[in-house]
Design goal:
The structure holds 3 protein chains of 3 kinds. Chain A has helices spanning about 1-10, 10-35, 45-50, 50-85, 90-95, 105-115, 120-125, 140-165, 165-175, 180-190, 195-210, 210-215, 225-235, 240-265. Chain A is mostly helical. In chain A, helix 4 packs across helix 8 (about 140-165), helix 4 packs antiparallel against helix 11 and helix 8 runs antiparallel to helix 11 (about 195-210). The longest helix of chain A is centred in the first third of the chain and has 32 residues, at about 50-85. Chain A starts with a helix and ends with a helix. Chain B is an alpha/beta fold. Chain B folds into 2 domains: about 10-135 and about 265-325, 3-Layer(aba) Sandwich (D-Maltodextrin-Binding Protein, domain 2); about 140-260 and about 330-355, Periplasmic binding protein-like II (D-Maltodextrin-Binding Protein, domain 2), CATH 3.40.190. In chain B, the strands form 2 sheets. In chain B, strands 4, 5, 6, 7, 8 and 9 form a 6-stranded mixed beta sheet that branches. In chain B, strands 2-1-3 form a 3-stranded parallel beta sheet. Chain B is globular. Chain C has a single domain, classed as MetI-like (MetI-like fold, Orthogonal Bundle). The chains are: A mainly alpha, B alpha/beta, C mainly alpha. Chains in contact: A-B, A-C, B-C. At the A-C interface, helix 2, helix 4, helix 5, helix 6 and helix 8 of A face helix 1, helix 3, helix 4, helix 5 and helix 6 of C.
Chain lengths: ~270, ~350, ~270
C-alpha cells in the first residue's frame, strides 16, 4: 500500500496544475458566462450565442481551422519525412523551429510587406507572367500565414514518429513486392498515426481561436470565435459573453478530442 | 538521461547569471531604489529626454510601463496587484474608471501649470472641472488620402468614401465606435446617437460601403497607407500626422459633417503609491517648454496653448491638426453609452465585418 | 536507411526552408534601412543598432524574456513529462480522452481569457504580480504542449521492452532512467522547444499577469504598435536571431561530439 502511494507521488505536480490552472479557470469562465451585463445571473449570453451571427462565426472558425490543419499536414508530412533522411537531421529539425522564436507581430508585419501590392510575392508573380494581384487580406494569405505559424508544431511530432520507424519494416515490405504507395499507406502512415494526431491537435485546436492574424493578415474579413472573444473582452468589456463563447470553444474541443479518440480505437480493431 | 540532466543544469546556471545581470542593471538604473514613479502609458508616447530631465530635476526615478489598449489597462488597474502612479487613458475610459471608483481626485493647487491649458479642452463632459484628469494630447478622426494615387479627387466629406471609384481602396480602423460613428455622421446624426432606427440606418449605409473596404486594421494601417498599399484611410489624427511625415503625397481632412474629438489624459489611479510625485509629474508635463518638446517628439496635438510659441510655426499653423475653434465646434466627444448600447454597436460592427 | 534524397525532394526542402526564413530575412534587411520604415529601402545604416545598444531598458526586457522562456520551458517540460506518464497509465479510453481534453483546454482558450482568469486567480491568492506570476503562467500554458509532444512517444513504447528490462532485474528507477527516458528523449526535446516557442511568443497572458517593473519583449513590442514599431526592434530581432543560430549550431556540435545520435543508443 505504502509502495503504491510513493509510486503515485510523481503525479502530484501535474494534478496540481490541472486543479489550479485548468479546473479553476474553467469554473471562473463558467461563472462569468452566466452573468449578464449588470452582473446578475442569467442565460441571456447562451441565448445570444444561438443567434445567426455566432453560429455563422462558429462554422467559419471550423472551416478555416480545418483548412489550415489540412494544408499544414500536406506540407508538414513530406517535410518531416525528408528531414529524417538528411545527414544532420536533428540540426535541420532545430532549424525548423528557430523562426518561430522571432516575435509573431514582427513576422506578421514582414508578411504585410511581402504580400503587399509592391511586395516580393507580386514581383515574383509578375516575373512568371501571372501578373500582380491582390494578395493581402485574402483567404489565401490568411491560410498561408497561419500554416506558416503552425507548421513547425506539426513537423515535430511527425518527425519524431517517423524517425523511430524501424527500417526493417520497409525492407520487408519492399521484399514482399509492395509498391511505394502501398508501403506508405499500409505501413508507414499507420505507424506514424500517433504523431500525425498530435500534430493535428496542436494545429486544429489553436486554429479555432486564432485572432491576431484575422485582423493583421485577413484585414478583419475573416471572423473567428477567437476574434469575437477578443472583442468582447477588450472592446465591449462584456466578460459574460466572452466567457460564453469560450465555454462553447471548450465544448467543441472536447467533441473534437473524443471524435479523434474513437477513430483510433476503431483503427486498432 | 545524463545528457538531459546536464542540459537542465546548464539552463539553470544560465538563468542564474542572467538574473544576476538583470538585478545589477535594475540597480544601476535606480529602478529598485526608493523614490520612484511608475508611469503607465502607450508605447513610445513620450519623449524619453523629457523623462530624463524630469528625473534630473526632481531626483525621482521614472519607471515607464506600457499598454496597448485602454480596456486592457483598465483591467490591470481594476484587478489590483499593481501600483501605477500615472496612467494615460483616452477620454471615454475616464468615465468608466470614475464609475468603478478607480481614480484619485487631482489636487489642482499642486498643478499651477494647469493655466497653460487651452480653455477649449478643460471642463469637458467626460470629466467636469477636470477633477480626475488632465489632458495630455488630443486629436480628431478623419480621412487620410493619397492625392497622387487618387488623381486629384476631391475628398472633404464622409460621403465621398462611398464613391464607386474607390473600390477596394479604403482601410478602416478596426474599432466599432469609429466605424458606426462614421455611418451615423455621414447621415448627419450625432456620434452618440443610440436610436435603434438610426443605428439600423447607419448599418445599412455601411453595408453598401463594403465593396470599397480593403481591410479593417489596427495600428498596422499606418504602414500600409504610408507605403501606398491603400490610397485612403480612416484614421486618428495622430497617426495621420505621423504617416504624412513619411509620405508627402498624403493629406488629412476633417470631414465636413463632423467627427470625433478625442483626448488622452493623465490620471492618478487609486492604486498609486507616490501621489506627490504623480502631481509633480503632471505639473512638469504641463510646463510650456516641456510640452513643446514632448509634442515635437510625439507629433500629436497638444492642448497646451502656451507651448505653441515654442514649437515650429508650420506645426502650429497647420489647420489640419490644430483646427480653429469654429472647426472644433463640429466635433463631438464620445459619451459613455453604457454596456447595453455599446454591446449593440459592437454586434452591428461584427455583422458589418462578416457581410 | 538510404541517406540520399531525390533532387525533387531536395528542391522541396529548400523551398520550405526558404519560406520559413523569408519573413525573418525581410526583418533583418530593413533593420539596415535609414528610411526608418519597413518598406522602401533608402540607404544602408547601422544607426538602429547604435540606438539599440544605448537602450538599457530594452536590454533588461530582453534578459527578462530569455530567463522566463528558459525557466518556464524547463519546468513545464518536467511537469509535462510526468503528466504524460500519468495519462499513459490510465487504462480506460474514456478517462484518457477526458484527461487529454482537460489537458488541451489551455491550448484552445484564447490568450485574453487565460490572461484574465490567471490574473483573477493570482489576485485571489494574493500573489504579488511580477516575475513569479509571469513565470507561473508561462509554465501553466506550456505544460499541455509538452504533454502532447511526449505522449505519442510514451504510448508507442512497446510494453515488452519494459517487461524485458524488469526481467533483467532492473529496479523501477532504473527502468525509468535507463529505458523510458532515453526512449522518449526526442519527445522531451520537442516539448521543451515548443514550450520555449510558446513562452517567447506570448503577449496577452504576460500582459495581464505582470506587475510593476517587469515586462517581456512581446508586451513591449505590442504596446509600441500604436506609435509605430521603430527599426531598433528589427535590429534587436536580428541580433537575437543570430545569437540563437550560433547557440543552436554550437549545441548541436557539442552533443554530437559527446554522443552520436543520443536517442538511439539504447537500442544498439
Amino acid at each position: 500500500m505504502e509502495n503504491k502511494t510513493t509510486r503515485s507521488l510523481y503525479m502530484i505536480p501535474y494534478v496540481i496544475w490541472i486543479a489550479f490552472f485548468v479546473i479553476a479557470p474553467i469554473l471562473l469562465v463558467l461563472y462569468y458566462s452566466f452573468q449578464d451585463l449588470n452582473g446578475d445571473f442569467s442565460l441571456t449570453n447562451y441565448q445570444n450565442f444561438f443567434t445567426p451571427i455566432y453560429l455563422e462565426m462558429t462554422l467559419s472558425s471550423f472551416w478555416y481551422a480545418f483548412l489550415i490543419t489540412l494544408v499544414t499536414l500536406l506540407f508538414a508530412y513530406p517535410t518531416a519525412y525528408l528531414l529524417t533522411k538528411l545527414k544532420h537531421k536533428q540540426l535541420w529539425l532545430l532549424l525548423i523551429i528557430v523562426p518561430s522564436w522571432i516575435n509573431l507581430l514582427l513576422k506578421a508585419y514582414a508578411f504585410l510587406g511581402i504580400f503587399g501590392t509592391y511586395g516580393m510575392a507580386n514581383k515574383l508573380l509578375e516575373a512568371v507572367g501571372i501578373g500582380s494581384r491582390q494578395l493581402l487580406f485574402t483567404d489565401f494569405s490568411f491560410v498561408f500565414v497561419a500554416v506558416y505559424i503552425f507548421i513547425p508544431f506539426m513537423i515535430l511530432p511527425i518527425f519524431n514518429s517517423l524517425d523511430k520507424l524501424n527500417p526493417t519494416y520497409l525492407d520487408a515490405a519492399n521484399d514482399l513486392g509492395a509498391s511505394r504507395w502501398t508501403t506508405f499507406r499500409r505501413i508507414v502512415f499507420p505507424l506514424t498515426i500517433d504523431g500525425v494526431k498530435a500534430g493535428c491537435q496542436i494545429t486544429f485546436i489553436p486554429a479555432l481561436s486564432l485572432f491576431m492574424l484575422t485582423r493583421l493578415i485577413a484585414g478583419s474579413q475573416v471572423i473567428t470565435l477567437g476574434t469575437a472573444i477578443e472583442q468582447q473582452f477588450l472592446v465591449t468589456q462584456d466578460w459574460g459573453m466572452g466567457s460564453t463563447i469560450a465555454v462553447f470553444l471548450i465544448i467543441f474541443m472536447f467533441i473534437v478530442m473524443f471524435a479523434t479518440g474513437t477513430k483510433r480505437r476503431r483503427a486498432r480493431g | 538521461m545524463k545528457q538531459l540532466v546536464r542540459l537542465a543544469v546548464v539552463i539553470l546556471a544560465v538563468c542564474g547569471i542572467l538574473l544576476f545581470t538583470i538585478s545589477r542593471l535594475n540597480a544601476s538604473q535606480g529602478y529598485s531604489g526608493g523614490n520612484t514613479l511608475t508611469v503607465y502609458n502607450w508605447g513610445d508616447y513620450i519623449d524619453p529626454e523629457v523623462l530624463d530631465s524630469f528625473e534630473e530635476e526632481t531626483g525621482i526615478t521614472v519607471i515607464y510601463e506600457t499598454f496597448d489598449t485602454n480596456e486592457a489597462m483598465m483591467t490591470k488597474i481594476q484587478q489590483g496587484g499593481t501600483s501605477y502612479d500615472i496612467a494615460v487613458p483616452s477620454e471615454y475610459m475616464i468615465e468608466k474608471l470614475k464609475e468603478e471608483d478607480l481614480l484619485l481626485p487631482i489636487d489642482h493647487s499642486k498643478i499651477p501649470n494647469l493655466k497653460n491649458i487651452d480653455d477649449r479642452f478643460l471642463d469637458l463632459s467626460f470629466d467636469p472641472n477636470n477633477k480626475y484628469s488632465i489632458p495630455y494630447f488630443w486629436g480628431t478622426v478623419g480621412i487620410v488620402y493619397n492625392s497622387k494615387k487618387l488623381d486629384g479627387m476631391k475628398i472633404d466629406s464622409w460621403n465621398d468614401l462611398w464613391n464607386p471609384a474607390l473600390k477596394n481602396e479604403i482601410i478602416f480602423t478596426d474599432s466599432p465606435r469609429e466605424i458606426i460613428g462614421m455611418g451615423l455622421n455621414s447621415l448627419n446624426y450625432s456620434l452618440n446617437d443610440t436610436d435603434p432606427d438610426h443605428l439600423q440606418e447607419a448599418y445599412d449605409k455601411l453595408v453598401s460601403l463594403k465593396p470599397n473596404v480593403k481591410a479593417l486594421l489596427g495600428d498596422e494601417n499606418k504602414m500600409l497607407l504610408a507605403s501606398g498599399e491603400a490610397s485612403i484611410g480612416v484614421v486618428w489624427s495622430g497617426d495621420a500626422s505621423e504617416i504624412m511625415g513619411e509620405n508627402a503625397n498624403l493629406d488629412y481632412v476633417l470631414p465636413k459633417e463632423g467627427s470625433n474629438l478625442w483626448f488622452d489624459n493623465m490620471v492618478i489611479p487609486k492604486t498609486a503609491k507616490n501621489v506627490d510625485a504623480a502631481h509633480e509629474f503632471i505639473n512638469y508635463m504641463l510646463d510650456p517648454k516641456v510640452a513643446a518638446k514632448n509634442t515635437e517628439y510625439v507629433s500629436y496635438s497638444t492642448p497646451n496653448k502656451e507651448a505653441l510659441q515654442y514649437m515650429p510655426a508650420e506645426m502650429v499653423n497647420d489647420k489640419r491638426f490644430y483646427p480653429s475653434p469654429e472647426q472644433t465646434e463640429r466635433l463631438e466627444v464620445y459619451e459613455n453609452l453604457g454596456p447595453e448600447k455599446l454591446g449593440r454597436m459592437n454586434e452591428l460592427f461584427l455583422k458589418f465585418k462578416m457581410e | 536507411m538510404d541517406k540520399r534524397i531525390s533532387p525533387l525532394s531536395r528542391i522541396f526542402l529548400i523551398v520550405m526552408f526558404a519560406l520559413l526564413y523569408l519573413p525573418i530575412f525581410y526583418l533583418i534587411f530593413y533593420s539596415f534601412n535609414s528610411g526608418g520604415t519597413m518598406y522602401g529601402f533608402e540607404n544602408f545604416t547601422l544607426d538602429w543598432y547604435r540606438e539599440l545598444f544605448q537602450n538599457t531598458r530594452l536590454l533588461i526586457i530582453v534578459l527578462n524574456t530569455v530567463v522566463i522562456a528558459l525557466l518556464s520551458a524547463l519546468i513545464s517540460t518536467i511537469i509535462g513529462v510526468l503528466g504524460a506518464m500519468m495519462i499513459n497509465k490510465v487504462r480506460s479510453r474514456r478517462a484518457k480522452d477526458s484527461l487529454l481534453s482537460l489537458n488541451n483546454i489551455l491550448i484552445v482558450s484564447p490568450d485574453v481569457i487565460i490572461g484574465a482568469s490567471f490574473l483573477i486567480l493570482f489576485t485571489i491568492a494574493g500573489l504579488k504580480l511580477g516575475f513569479y506570476s509571469v513565470l507561473l503562467s508561462h509554465i501553466a500554458f506550456s505544460i499541455p504542449i509538452v504533454v502532447l509532444m511526449v505522449l505519442p512517444k510514451i504510448s508507442e513504447m512497446s510494453p515488452s521492452l519494459l517487461d524485458a528490462a524488469r526481467d533483467l532485474g532492473a529496479s523501477r528507477w532504473e527502468v525509468m532512467t535507463k529505458v523510458v527516458i532515453p526512449y522518449i528523449t526526442p519527445g522531451i526535446f520537442a516539448g521543451f522547444f515548443m514550450a520555449l516557442t510558446y513562452s517567447l511568443d506570448d503577449f496577452a497572458v504576460t500582459f495581464f499577469v505582470t506587475g510593476n517593473g517587469f515586462t517581456t519583449l512581446s508586451v513591449e513590442i505590442y504596446s509600441l504598435a500604436r506609435r509605430g514599431i521603430s527599426l531598433d526592434i528589427n535590429a534587436l530581432s536580428t541580433i537575437i536571431f543570430l545569437i540563437t543560430m550560433v547557440i543552436v549550431v554550437i549545441y548541436y556540435l557539442i552533443t554530437n561530439r559527446t554522443k552520436k545520435a543520443p536517442d538511439m543508443e539504447v537500442f544498439k
